[in-house]
């Protein structure tokens, strides 16, 4: 799987679920070209685990490092360490992926990925020192008009069409027209789905920023 003549990379894991740790341990042990070093489910033991095992590759469950603080700390201590984020569904959006890559994570893969996909991500990260699983790669964001973005932001805040109209000082029919445009551009089923898609894609981050607006 990896270049011959080099020592097999040692792999360690930080994940709170014992069954997942056992499964990944078995996977790595039976994969030629990789060495299993150990794991912990305790976030506070992560630094000690790294110091004790000195892995080449460390996989971290995103629920234990949701903003990349642990990854940043470990990479600062050991610049040769390769960190792969195991991304939970709740974190599988552009904002999370961007933030952890900026923090020093080298690869990301859905935590629910098939075993062979996880092995592939480990191999590719070792080879190129960086890999983003296709399911987590940023998708092109739809472009909303400024007014559509304002309407979407207010919908995300829980306002109904009449309340949005009152806030923007427009007619409710105008708001409905903007909502239809938003649903069409986001390929959303309804208002709730539109908000969910907007957050997952990174289109909605907060009221202070207006990404993807023309």
Automatic annotation (TrEMBL):
This is Response regulator transcription factor. The keyword Transmembrane does not apply. Pfam families: GerE. One of its GO terms (biological process) is phosphorelay signal transduction system. The modification 4-aspartylphosphate is found at residue 61. PROSITE patterns: HTH_LUXR_2, RESPONSE_REGULATORY. SUPFAM superfamilies: C-terminal effector domain of the bipartite response regulators, CheY-like. It comes from the Bacteria. Transmembrane segments: none annotated. PANTHER family: TWO-COMPONENT RESPONSE REGULATOR (PTHR43214:SF43). The keyword DNA-binding applies. Residues 10-126 form the Response regulatory domain. Keywords: DNA-binding, Phosphoprotein. It comes from Lentzea alba. CDD domains: LuxR_C_like. One of its GO terms (molecular function) is DNA binding. Residues 137-202 form the HTH luxR-type domain.
């Amino acid at each position: 799987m990896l270049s011959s003549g080099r020592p097999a990379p040692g792999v360690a894991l930080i994940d709170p679920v014992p069954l997942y740790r056992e499964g990944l341990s078995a996977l790595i042990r039976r994969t030629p070209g990789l060495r299993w070093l150990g794991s912990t489910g305790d976030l506070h033991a992560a630094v000690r685990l790294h110091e004790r095992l000195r892995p080449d590759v460390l996989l971290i469950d995103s629920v234990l490092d949701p903003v990349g603080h642990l990854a940043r700390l470990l990479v600062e201590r050991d610049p040769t360490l390769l960190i792969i984020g195991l991304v939970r569904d709740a974190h599988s959006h552009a904002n999370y992926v961007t933030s952890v890559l900026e923090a020093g994570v080298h690869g990301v893969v859905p935590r629910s990925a098939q075993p062979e996909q996880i092995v592939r991500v480990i191999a590719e990260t070792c080879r190129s020192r960086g890999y983003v699983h296709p399911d987590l790669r940023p998708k092109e964001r739809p472009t909303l008009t400024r007014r559509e973005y304002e309407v979407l932001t207010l919908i995300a805040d829980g306002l109904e069409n009449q309340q949005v109209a009152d806030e923007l000082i427009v007619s409710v029919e105008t708001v409905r027209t903007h909502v239809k445009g938003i649903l069409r551009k986001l390929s959303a089923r309804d208002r709730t789905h539109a908000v969910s898609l907007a957050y997952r894609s990174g289109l909605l981050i907060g009221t202070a920023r207006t990404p993807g607006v023309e």
